[in-house]
Write a structure and sequence with these properties.
With 212 residues, this protein is mainly beta. Helices cover 14% and strands 36% of the residues. The strands form five sheets. A six-stranded antiparallel β-sheet has the order 1-2-3-12-7-10, with no helix packed on it. Strands 9-8-11 form a three-stranded antiparallel β-sheet, with no helix packed on it. A two-stranded antiparallel sheet has the order 4-5. A hairpin with a 5-residue loop joins strand 8 and strand 9. The relative contact order is 0.17. Bound molecules: manganese (II) ion. The site of manganese (II) ion (MN) has 5 residues, from loops. The site of manganese (II) ion has 5 residues, from loops.
Length: 212
């Protein structure tokens, strides 16, 4: 039986205060910051955390998700939201840490999103770990790119994007995008992506999402 009290606490858990984070960095006169999270973050910025309970319906095997949640509510990923002002011309950036694991046969992944301003791109650079960037545009064109250390992937304008961890260690990626791009999670939440990344014979394979 799930503990609803724990859920409620989680939902209202302290979300990093945007202003608090924003005020630590000089967005108008330059600043340095350390993103090697394996050695510790040099600033006091807090991460935003996503637990399985917050995205259980995004996995194909909802039954497997339910079984995991009967036992625990694993942290799937967390990311630094530095509070970049959402002004035209600014570049928001940060780091996402996506943990290893699976729900049924499907690897841990981020929620993924379109940008509200659809015509804005994004760059991801992999610091450590292995995985995929899974992308699709509103017309249903799909693209998957491998994520590997010291490689950048360009997420083109108009493509929703989600990262998937297919390895045994945290997948750590640096990202940067137009600060006023905005995030649209809803569109992709209803049906999910056209493609999903699952383990087959011990290896990751990209398969069509049967929900489509
Ligand atoms: Mn984005």
């Amino acid at each position: 039986m799930r503990d609803r009290t724990a859920d409620t606490q989680r939902d209202t858990a302290k979300v990093p205060d945007r202003e608090e984070n924003m005020n630590q960095f000089d967005w108008d006169h330059s600043f340095l910051c350390d993103f090697d999270l394996k050695k510790g973050f040099s600033q006091k910025a807090e991460t935003t955390k996503r637990y399985l309970s917050q995205m259980k319906d995004m996995y194909y095997d909802t039954e497997a998700a339910g079984k995991i949640l009967e036992q625990e509510d694993p942290l799937i990923y967390e990311f630094y939201e530095l509070g970049c002002p959402e002004r035209a011309g600014d570049l928001a950036f940060g780091t996402t840490i996506l943990y290893p694991g699976k729900v049924g046969g499907e690897y841990y992944m981020t929620k993924g999103h379109f940008h509200t301003q659809l015509e804005t791109a994004e760059v991801y650079y992999t610091l450590s770990g292995q995985g995929y960037m899974v992308m699709e545009n509103p017309e249903g064109d799909t693209v998957e790119m491998p994520l590997a250390p010291n490689q950048a992937v360009y997420v083109p304008r108009r493509y929703a994007h989600r990262t998937v961890n297919t390895g045994n260690e945290p997948l750590v990626v640096f990202f940067t995008f137009a600060a006023d791009a905005g995030h649209d999670y809803g569109t992709i939440e209803t049906k999910g992506y056209h493609k999903m990344v699952v383990e087959k014979d011990g290896k990751p394979v990209i398969v069509p999402n049967p929900k489509w």
